[in-house]
């Protein structure tokens, strides 16, 4: 009996666990502000848990693998939204830290750890996060740090300079640098981020030049058929080498970026131009309906990959941006709320119902079109997407985005980003070296001079022979000044006799004949012995039975020129007929006591 109850109890516990797992983690009411904020708070907590900036080796503003840098920028934008809609300051410091840490040395979101593979769309997502921070008066950075508006302007300036007309008549390339895969592709999301940023900068600053760029981008998109002016479908991109070869995939974030940019342009313009943008905005809303599926066509889906389970890590986050930008568009084009809010509300209810996975039992899935079903896929993208669509329910009661005319406090810099305009290479170590000043050059000269002096001193020290009678200068020059009374010496240490040498000028005695005999020499050394072959030419008298000039050769050796090794001293002397070799044995101690003589040997001519 006891065993039966134990088995039944274990089975009951397992069933209870399964029911718990199958039940939604949240009791979500899309009409209740308290419920919306409560669920959004939990979603944000789980999302930032995946950011986990406190993990070993973590860098502020970077997500762990397998997430790319651009998605971290998108996450920062999501957390700016979270603060703006809920007023919860829990994540403000981390968000601010991440946004500022990744700005790069020129404050334009081109950090050295990313520029090698950075794309225009990657940079664009960080700029859009900074733009949101400016529009919502997110906590401004310290005065010695780059400001939100200036960061957005810097990115705009660098990208406007990259607008390329040689291929397809305009547009931005996907990649910034030539060696990256995708440089020959002009992808729509790069254009969409640029258009979105330009339109919002025009609205925030009132500067028409930004609006002109927004118009230019829209016109180029239509001219390439990447944006169909009839269906308002927005396609993925086009090869720069074949401008008619369009990639026909449709992604939620492309439509969303153009939707928000168009609403900003609608708000910025007036008269007939405003009507043009209203027509375009209506068209884009019609085009986005392709992303709403389910029985009532009111639940958002990433239709290019969700139905076939092929969404990659990037694509799993795309619905977050359509949710974000559809909601934000309502503020600048209020008449769209009647179409947008019902779609976002039904989507948020379905999305939250999938949040029943992961270790904590409340991580959210990717597919929302089957409410209450968790598909087993969770991560940063899924969690961010559900949080954004839940937050969209707070749009009607949230504050309007600001401009410089309505209370925006972020400081701008219209010339920002100039140092990276037309940059063709990523950052190297040289980019971070401080400019060389005059004082630095003077200091370097002094240090160089001292090093040369130390080097010379070291060389002299190595040349010093403490047993030698030579002076330090003679040792340095290598001169052999050993001599005996009446002898000659090689004072210039060339080991050569020149025609200009005389006994008086160099302390030499003539070898043969007149001291003015022209001589040339060839030196041959064997060990410590030195032999001089002297070829001398002399003029003979006319009564000699030989030619007027005669060349004679004699092999001679220096007289009294000493070459030392640790044991032997060899010197030469002339006895009037021939040269003799005098060899003496030196004492190892190098003392100056008398040296023993050995019998001289004759040197042959």
TrEMBL record:
<keyword id="KW-0472">Membrane</keyword>
<feature type="region of interest" description="Disordered">
    <location>
        <begin position="484"/>
        <end position="513"/>
    </location>
</feature>
<dbReference type="GO" id="GO:0016052">
    <property type="term" value="P:carbohydrate catabolic process"/>
</dbReference>
<keyword id="KW-0378">Hydrolase</keyword>
<protein>
    <recommendedName>
        <fullName>mannan endo-1,6-alpha-mannosidase</fullName>
        <ecNumber>3.2.1.101</ecNumber>
    </recommendedName>
</protein>
<feature type="transmembrane region" description="Helical">
    <location>
        <begin position="442"/>
        <end position="464"/>
    </location>
</feature>
<keyword id="KW-0326">Glycosidase</keyword>
<keyword id="KW-0812">Transmembrane</keyword>
<dbReference type="InterPro" id="IPR005198">
    <property type="entry name" value="Glyco_hydro_76"/>
</dbReference>
<dbReference type="InterPro" id="IPR008928">
    <property type="entry name" value="6-hairpin_glycosidase_sf"/>
</dbReference>
<keyword id="KW-0325">Glycoprotein</keyword>
<feature type="compositionally biased region" description="Basic and acidic residues">
    <location>
        <begin position="487"/>
        <end position="498"/>
    </location>
</feature>
<comment type="similarity">
    <text>Belongs to the glycosyl hydrolase 76 family.</text>
</comment>
<keyword id="KW-0732">Signal</keyword>
<feature type="region of interest" description="Disordered">
    <location>
        <begin position="579"/>
        <end position="605"/>
    </location>
</feature>
<dbReference type="GO" id="GO:0012505">
    <property type="term" value="C:endomembrane system"/>
</dbReference>
<keyword id="KW-1133">Transmembrane helix</keyword>
<dbReference type="GO" id="GO:0008496">
    <property type="term" value="F:mannan endo-1,6-alpha-mannosidase activity"/>
</dbReference>
<dbReference type="GO" id="GO:0009272">
    <property type="term" value="P:fungal-type cell wall biogenesis"/>
</dbReference>
<feature type="signal peptide">
    <location>
        <begin position="1"/>
        <end position="25"/>
    </location>
</feature>
<dbReference type="InterPro" id="IPR014480">
    <property type="entry name" value="Mannan-1_6-alpha_mannosidase"/>
</dbReference>
<dbReference type="Pfam" id="PF03663">
    <property type="entry name" value="Glyco_hydro_76"/>
</dbReference>
């Amino acid at each position: 009996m006891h065993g039966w109850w134990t088995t039944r109890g274990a089975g009951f516990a397992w069933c209870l666990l399964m029911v718990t797992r199958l039940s939604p983690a949240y009791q979500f009411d899309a009409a209740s502000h308290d419920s919306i904020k409560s669920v959004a708070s939990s979603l944000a907590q789980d999302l930032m848990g995946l950011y986990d900036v406190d993990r070993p080796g973590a860098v502020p503003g970077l997500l762990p693998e397998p997430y790319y840098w651009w998605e971290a920028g998108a996450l920062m934008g999501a957390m700016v939204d979270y603060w703006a809609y809920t007023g919860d300051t829990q994540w403000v410091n981390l968000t601010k830290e991440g946004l500022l840490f990744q700005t790069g040395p020129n404050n334009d979101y081109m950090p050295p750890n990313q520029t090698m593979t950075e794309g225009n769309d990657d940079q664009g997502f960080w700029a859009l996060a900074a733009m949101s921070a400016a529009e919502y008066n997110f906590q401004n950075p310290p005065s010695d740090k780059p400001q939100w508006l200036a960061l957005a302007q810097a990115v705009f300036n660098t990208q406007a300079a990259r607008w390329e007309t040689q291929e397809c008549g305009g547009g931005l390339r996907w990649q910034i640098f030539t060696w990256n895969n995708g440089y020959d592709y002009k992808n729509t999301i790069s254009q969409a981020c640029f258009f979105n940023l330009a339109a919002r900068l025009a609205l925030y600053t009132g500067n028409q030049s930004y609006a002109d760029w927004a118009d230019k981008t829209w016109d180029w998109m239509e001219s390439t058929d990447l944006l169909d002016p009839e269906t308002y479908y927005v396609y993925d991109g086009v090869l720069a080498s074949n401008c008619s070869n369009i990639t026909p995939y449709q992604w939620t974030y492309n439509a969303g970026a153009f939707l928000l940019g168009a609403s900003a342009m609608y708000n910025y313009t007036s008269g007939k131009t405003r009507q043009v943008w209203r027509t375009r905005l209506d068209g884009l809303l019609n085009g986005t309906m392709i992303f709403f599926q389910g029985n009532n066509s009111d639940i958002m889906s990433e239709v290019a990959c969700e139905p076939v389970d092929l969404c990659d890590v990037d694509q799993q986050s795309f619905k977050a941006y359509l949710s974000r930008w559809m909601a934000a568009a309502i503020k600048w084009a209020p008449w769209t709320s009647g179409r947008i809010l019902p779609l976002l509300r039904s989507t948020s209810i379905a999305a939250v119902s999938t949040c029943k996975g992961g270790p904590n039992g409340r991580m959210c899935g990717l597919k929302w079109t089957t409410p209450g079903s968790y598909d087993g896929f969770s991560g940063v993208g899924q969690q961010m997407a559900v949080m954004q669509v839940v937050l969209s329910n707070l749009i009607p009661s949230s504050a309007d985005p600001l401009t410089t005319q309505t209370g925006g406090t972020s400081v701008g810099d219209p010339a920002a980003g100039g140092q990276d305009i037309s940059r063709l290479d990523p950052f190297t170590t040289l980019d971070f070296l401080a400019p060389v000043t005059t004082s630095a050059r003077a200091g370097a000269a002094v240090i160089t001079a001292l090093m040369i002096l130390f080097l010379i001193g070291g060389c002299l020290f190595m040349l010093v022979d403490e047993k030698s009678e030579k002076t330090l200068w003679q040792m340095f020059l290598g001169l052999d000044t050993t001599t005996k009374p009446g002898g000659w010496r090689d004072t210039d240490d060339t080991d050569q006799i020149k025609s200009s040498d005389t006994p008086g000028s160099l302390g030499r005695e003539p070898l043969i004949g007149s001291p003015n005999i022209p001589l040339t020499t060839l030196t041959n050394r064997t060990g410590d012995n030195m032999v001089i072959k002297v070829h001398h030419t002399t003029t003979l008298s006319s009564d000699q039975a030989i030619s007027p000039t005669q060349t004679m050769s004699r092999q001679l050796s220096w007289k009294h020129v000493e070459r030392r090794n640790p044991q032997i001293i060899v010197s030469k002397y002339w006895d009037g007929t021939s040269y003799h070799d005098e060899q003496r044995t030196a004492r190892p101690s190098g003392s100056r006591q008398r040296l023993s003589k050995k019998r001289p040997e004759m040197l042959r001519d």
